[in-house]
Amino acid sequence: MPVILFIIILIVIVNTPSYIRKHLTQEIAAESCNYRDNHQLSEWNPLSKIEWLRLYPLKKVLFGIFWLVCLYISVRGIFLTVNNPRKTFIFLTVIFCAITLFTARKVWRYIRLPYHCIPVLNHIQTKEEIKEALQGECFEEVPFQHHWLQKYFKVLLSQNWAIIDGYLISRKAVKKIYFLHEDPVVNYIQIKFVYFNGEEFCLPSEKFYTDEKRENEVSAFLHKISQEVIEKADEENLSRKKDKSVVYWNMNYKGKFRRTLWFIPVVIILCFLTPYFMGRFWFVYDIILVAVLIGQLWYTYNMKKVEEKIETGDYMICPNCKKPIYKDENSCPHCHFDVHSSFLR
Description:
Blueprint: H1 2-37, H2 47-51, H3 56-83, H4 87-112, H5 127-134, E1 140-141, H6 147-152, E2 155-157, E3 161-164, E4 167-170, E5 174-180, E6 190-195, E7 200-202, H7 212-225, E8 229-230, H8 235-238, H9 253-277, H10 282-312, E9 315-317, E10 324-326, H11 339-344
Parallel strand pairs: 5-8
Antiparallel strand pairs: 1-2, 2-3, 3-4, 5-6, 6-7, 9-10
Helix pairs in contact: 3-4, 9-10
């Protein structure tokens, strides 16, 4: 029974944000049309509701509570360690003190930043300027024919703005858009907005099988935001992921493999520390840590080799099994798929 209850709670937590985003988007469109019909658009501003599309006010509260809890545990742990210097107290106190110190600035900046729903412009313009720019805008839902777009890709469009997946994008501030729906390693959909000041914003990438009808509809919509929509990766876009970056997911697989190697000594240290704070089942945690590390090393190494082959220009990716093959091959040696006939179709 507890396991079933946990699964139900997990399903609710995972699906609640998308459910709220979908219904709030419909509510914004309905309210916008009502104010337009009543000639009261100048009195209506949807910014607070748009901010709730991705639950940013709730996230600010949760991050603040999380940091305060870490601060309380750190202070409490210091007093407990002074009175009773046990290894467990010392270890946990050091961990929570480190979390509290290293996250203080980021949490504070996250809470202070206004309107997370407006990328790039939220740290360039003031609150008053953003509110004024939205004054009198009438948002209407963009109809799609593809069933996936109807269900998951809720988009609103006004004269100067677009609401895409909970983000508010200025049509006047966007210089060009990259709409990438094929990758040499994995299938994915990525929409990247390049603003006139040179800053970029990427919508969360999604992995899907290619679908020409869906891609054509998304491309037609993006052309309403910017006249320059690039659907082929150029040299600038191919180099968007570097070997070195603070953010793990912004690196290519060569960088990810190197970063994973750095975690070998960390895992070794954790394996020696687990007997002190994980009780008699410490060896289970050691096995999990080592297994995850080996799996990540194996995956990133193999994907690094695939990227290196693609970069030579002599290889291509089989559309069926996603493995690298020579460009001169008529059929894939791994799955025997007729490669060139698929491109002709």
